[in-house]
């Protein structure tokens, strides 16, 4: 596979503009201190320029707004963006509080009998023009960055580490027709391979939600109506699934009535539906009235077959579809022998 790397100019422009605006915002903070000060004072050696917090308050608001825009532009919703920026503000305030407490403590504990070098060094932490606040903020943010990198690395390792167990398939036989399933299973058993899953799949689309066309439902992403869902039917949960709301339907109570379905929690959130809401599903040209009876939490990090929508038996058996059969081979040689 040939990969031709090329820069994402939109991302480059966004990061450049954001970095420039943030730098300008921080540069305005020290510039505000020289407002209303005569040139003679600024030229004096050792002079301390004091600024008022309320003069810099609009700049702080500007910086918070910029951080909020950056967090929002990276794909997070407003709640997550606010939580991220709020956490950063809290971290800044905590570090600033520690610096203020340190300066107050050092101002009171320095004694006249202390050695000269120690007394001068500790006193410099609270004297006018000190950089204690700046140093502690820099040190704290640096430590925060290192911890974040280590935590993100551990999280990625946990996500990408494959659990080597007999329950995790490493070979998928796709597009197995219904009349071929028994023969495929027989071939697997002849090769001393276990059948981990044999799952029927039927393609479908979401037509309407609550009687309103999916494209016109407020707050529902456009991809919900454009996506072709591959769903299955069964009367049990997988070990990768957990019911968090409602009750999983194992059968269709009324053969002529509405069809109960189970939705994955994130797709239910995107579709703005909950228990009892009705969804019209287009199963390859046939409109099927369904009702949400349960919502599942799915562990997508596992390599088992998971689905957004699960139907009970007795609904989709006659619809055109295919099967996926999974197994686990002990070696690449065994996988090659099976495929030959």
Task: Tell me briefly what this model is.
With 340 residues, this protein is an alpha+beta fold. Helix content is 43%, strand content 20%.
Describe what this molecule looks like in 3D.
This protein folds into two domains: 9-160, no CATH class; 171-339, no CATH class. Helix content is 43%, strand content 20%. It has ten helices and ten strands. The protein has a six-stranded mixed barrel. The protein is elongated and about 95 Å long. The chain starts with 8 loop residues before the first helix and ends with a helix.
Key phrases:
43% helix; 10 strands; alpha+beta; six-stranded mixed barrel; 340 residues
Element layout with pairings:
Layout: H1 9-31, H2 39-43, H3 53-73, H4 78-109, H5 116-123, H6 132-160, E1 171-176, H7 181-190, E2 195-209, E3 212-213, H8 223-226, E4 229-233, E5 241-246, E6 259-264, H9 265-270, E7 278-283, E8 286-298, E9 309-311, E10 322-327, H10 332-339
Helix pairs in contact: 1-3, 3-4, 4-6
**Looking at the structure, what is the overall shape?**
elongated
State the major sheet: 6 strands, mixed, barrel
Number of helices: 10
Helix-residue proportion: 40-55%
If you average the pLDDT, what whole number results?
Answer: 84
Give the strand line-up of the largest sheet: 2-4-9-6-8-7
Could you tell me the number of beta strands? 10
One letter per element, helices H and strands E, the order comes to HHHHHHEHEEHEEEHEEEEH
């Amino acid at each position: 596979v040939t990969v031709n790397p090329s820069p994402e100019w939109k991302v480059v422009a966004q990061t450049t503009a954001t970095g420039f605006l943030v730098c300008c915002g921080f540069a305005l903070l020290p510039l505000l201190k020289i407002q209303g000060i005569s040139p003679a004072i600024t030229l004096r050696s050792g002079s301390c320029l004091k600024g008022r917090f309320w003069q810099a308050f609009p700049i702080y608001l500007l910086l918070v707004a910029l951080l909020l825009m950056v967090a929002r532009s990276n794909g997070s919703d407003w709640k997550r963006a606010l939580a991220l920026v709020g956490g950063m503000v809290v971290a800044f305030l905590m570090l600033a509080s520690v610096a203020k407490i340190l300066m107050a403590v050092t101002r009171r504990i320095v004694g006249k009998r202390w050695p000269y070098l120690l007394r001068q060094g500790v006193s410099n932490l609270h004297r006018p023009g000190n950089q204690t606040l700046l140093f502690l903020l820099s040190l704290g943010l640096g430590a925060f960055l290192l911890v974040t990198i280590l935590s993100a690395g551990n999280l990625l390792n946990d996500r990408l580490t494959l659990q080597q167990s007999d329950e995790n398939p490493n070979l998928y036989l796709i597009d197995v027709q219904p009349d071929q399933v028994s023969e495929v299973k027989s071939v697997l058993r002849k090769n001393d391979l276990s059948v981990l899953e044999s799952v029927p799949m039927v393609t479908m689309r979401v037509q309407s939600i609550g009687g309103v066309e999916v494209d016109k439902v407020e707050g529902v992403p456009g991809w919900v109506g454009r996506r072709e869902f591959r769903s299955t039917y069964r009367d049990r949960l997988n070990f990768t699934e957990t019911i968090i709301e409602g009750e999983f339907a194992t059968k269709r109570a009324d053969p002529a009535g509405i069809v109960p379905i189970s939705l994955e929690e994130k797709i239910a959130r995107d579709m703005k539906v909950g228990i009892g809401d009705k969804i019209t599903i287009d199963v390859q040209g046939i409109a099927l009235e369904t009702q949400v009876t349960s919502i599942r939490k799915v562990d997508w990090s596992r390599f088992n077959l998971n689905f957004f929508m699960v139907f009970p038996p007795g609904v989709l058996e006659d619809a055109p579809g295919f099967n996926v059969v999974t197994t686990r081979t002990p070696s690449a040689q065994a996988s090659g022998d099976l495929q030959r």
